[in-house]
Amino acid sequence: MDVDLDSSGWISAIAMIGTNKAVSVIMMVVAAFFTATAALSIVLLKMVHSHYRRTGASFQKAQQEFSQGVLTNRTFQSAAANAASTAAQSSMQRN
Predict the structure, then answer these.
(1) d(Cα 32, Cα 45) in Å, to the nearest integer?
(2) CA 68 to chain centre
(3) Overall average pLDDT of the 60-82 stretch
(4) What's the CA gap between 7 and 5, in Å, rounded?
(5) What separation in angstroms does the CA of 89 have from each of 33, 77, 93, 95?
(6) With CB atoms 3.0 to 4.6 Å apart as the test, which of 13, 14, 44, 49 could cross-link to 27 if both were Cys?
(7) Is 4 a residue whose pLDDT tops 80?
């Protein structure tokens, strides 16, 4: 029996019915969970989008809030400076 272990979709589960019913049932349960996860992801994405539109938010406002909030944050600035310093030091050590 040659079974690809990363196959867990509906087509693979249905194809497995003739070979091994227990494996087919397990694969169908996994496929059902993947399908439910995809459906819930779409629902949540639509909810976030509708909330975004209701608040009157725009991409320009988001950019402005990001630049005012994150880029002026001292913790963010020091973390970015440390990361850049570490990257520069490791680059110099390799050469």
Answers:
(1) 20
(2) 26
(3) 75
(4) 6
(5) 47, 18, 6, 10
(6) 13
(7) no
Among 15, 35, 34, smallest CA distance to 24 is for 15
**What does 6-63 look like in DSSP terms, one character per residue?**
T--SHHHHHHTTTT-HHHHHHHHHHHHHHHHHHHHHHHHHHHHHHHHHHTT--HHHHH
Query: Tens digit of pLDDT for each residue in 10-61?
Result: 888 888 888 989 989 998 999 999 999 999 999 999 998 888 788 877 777 7
> What is the token pair recorded at 52?
């975004």
Q: CA-CA distance, 49 to 10, in Å (whole number)? A: 30
Q: Tokens 């949540």 label which residue?
A: 44
| Block residue for tokens 């990257």 | 87
Q: What is the pTM of this model?
A: 0.51
Backbone angles phi, psi at 80, to 5 degrees: -65, -40
